[in-house]
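Data deposition worksheet. Section B asks for the primary sequence of the deposited chain exactly as it was used as input, without tags or linkers unless they were present during the calculation. Section C holds the resulting structure in token form. Section D is free text for depositor observations; keep each observation to a single sentence. Incomplete worksheets are returned to the depositor.
Section A, Depositor: J.P.
Section B:
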Amino acid sequence: MKYFACIAGGVSLLIASTALAADTGQLPCKTTQECNENAAKVGANAPSGTLPSTSKSDAAEDQFYWLNKINKASTVMLMEEGIFPKDVGQLIAKGVEYTISQAKQPDGKRPSDVLQIEKIMTDKVGEEASVIHAGRSRQDMYATYRAAKLRNQTLDFAEALLGLRARLLAKAADNLDTLMPGYTNGVQAVPITYGHYLLAYEESLERDQQRISDAWRRLNLSPMGVGVMSGSIWPLNRARLAQLLGFDGIVENSMDANQVIPFDNQLEATAIANSAAIRVGVMMQDLHTQYAEVRPWLLLQEGSTYTSSAMPQKRNPGLIMQARIAASDVVGLSDAVSIRAHNVTSGMVDYKFEFEDLGLFPRAIKMVNAADRVFDAIMVDKARAKEELESDWTSTMNLAELLLQTHQIPFRVGHGFASQMVSYARPLNLTPKTIPFNTVTDLFAKTLAKFNMPAQAFPMSEAEFREVMSPEWIVTHTKGVGGPQPAETGRMLKEAERRLDADKAWLAGQRDKLAKADAALDRAFAALLPQDKAQ
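Section C:
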């Protein structure tokens, strides 16, 4: 033990000789706030207040929690590898356990700095316990904490996405036959169904889920054990540290582990949130445009809006606006992550923790939950949606297609006829239901002449013309994979539900693996404690 006391003393002298003006471990503090303030005064990384979190477990697993978890894993690994003898391991374990337990007391401290945490431990059990830091650095310890924080917040975001996707699928199931206009360039284009629309956006969010599960292979890798960036003379078992801390493997290159992968992992994960935010913003804007209509066909329930202070007729869609604001914030914060990482040299702190510092994922989850509340409150007026379609010429493209398919009228001729019919009808407020049939036949004859085609009668009866110009006929007669026809949207709904269940299982599997790793670490660490302490 005397030999290890010499090592510990040497470590302490080295720290003191190289960082006299900024040894955070020697700055006296009696409370968590005071500890963090003292660390912050000298520029060390310490939170100035409570950081936003993505869940209760995320809030509980702060920097203090994770640095002590790393200390537990380090103690287990050092003993398993025989780097230090059993009595030293027990001493370290006793100090780590005390540091954790004292924080639970009313006057306990939860500092965020490595040396402040070590000071609590060594004040209790002696300087010999500081050998726990052999081969380690703030660099790999903080990199490991941030990697764990990023993976946990990404999983929380994935869980929120699952909830929104389930909501969209439930709403789609109720609206597989709800006709609505599909828009391009802000103008009615073709008839689809609201179920078809919702399935499209659910599938886009499912791709974000795919991006998360694919990124997980890179996010869930451990940097722990590389020290600053070059390893050390100590034979630390990095793979065992990764296993104890719930990682699937290690970031192999020691410089990459601390100094490079923080760039791309944060950029990749936050880009997924940014991707989802873009689509959420579009969906909210699609809904919000309805409120500019005198008679919308999509509205929030009355109890989910708020009234004007001056205009009694108004029902303001605050839920929609709040979801869109949150989406815009996520896009902005994602850009901020990129800007913080831009144009700095490797090793700078600028790019190592911006996702947490900026609170991007808590905001992303707020966005997803806000969108979920919107779709929970949506009321669909199916009759009004159909009326919206029938008041315009949205089914016209299919008339040109049908003239080609059934009556061999060249497509460009049929298209020209349909376009000419719309140009004639709109100024007169005529619709497919009200345009005189003799006008239709006259316009067809003029179009044939324009294209130097032989004269022929319009190849449909009036009843046939009215039927094929109805939105119902177009939707039900659509062919091919992925269309709005009921049989196809029903099939896509079942497939989407299957994918949702698979994604739920994937998330549950990752959480289960992390929980099992925690339990294994606790058992291995408890075995190192002196028997009176372990009982």
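Section D:
The longest helix spans residues 486-526.
Residues 72 and 525 are 6 Å apart (CA to CA).
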